[in-house]
Amino acid sequence: MMKNCYKTIYFFFTLLIVSSACNRNKSAQLIFNNKTVDLGNVIPGNVYEYYIMFQNKGDQSLIIKKVVGSCNCLNLHWPSKPILGNQFDTIFGSISISQRDTGLFRKEIMVYANTDSLFHKIDIIGTGIISPNR
């Protein structure tokens, strides 16, 4: 009797392990080509545009829920439709460089999606320089 109980427990334990291994990668995976956008030298008072390319390397459709910038100077647009597995898409952004952004600066973008990570961080960096015409 005990021998049958151990066999049953072993069977269910093995089934549990195999089941969890099969479901491990059944999610969306957001992979960015680059997690830092370097704008280089920029002139305060101007607006600069950039694209952030990404891929869904997961098995499930990727849904970007929201994209949030660390300041009001960032204007962000992201796809509203689901991105299928192995598909590429982009986040479009623009940044209005303020007069305070002279020297090195760093802004952050947080991307919230249906992935295992709660959010994904992207840095926007650059150097504000004084225009020689001013």
- As laid out across the biggest beta sheet, the strand order is 1-3-6-5
Task: Give helix % range.
Answer: 10-25%
The geometry reads as elongated
The CATH first-level class comes to Mainly Beta
Task: Provide a count of the helices.
Answer: 1
Gyration radius from CA atoms, angstroms: 23 Å
Main β-sheet description: 4 strands, antiparallel
| Average pLDDT, all residues | 87
Oligomer: single chain
Q: Given the helix and strand composition, which structural class is it?
A: alpha+beta
- The CA-CA distance between the termini, in Å, is 91 Å
Total count of strands: 8
Low-confidence segments: none
Per DSSP, what share of the residues sits in E-state strands of 2 or more residues?
A: 35-45%
Query: Number of folding domains?
Result: 1
Pattern of helices and strands: HEEEEEEEE
Q: What is the architecture at the second tier of CATH? A: Sandwich
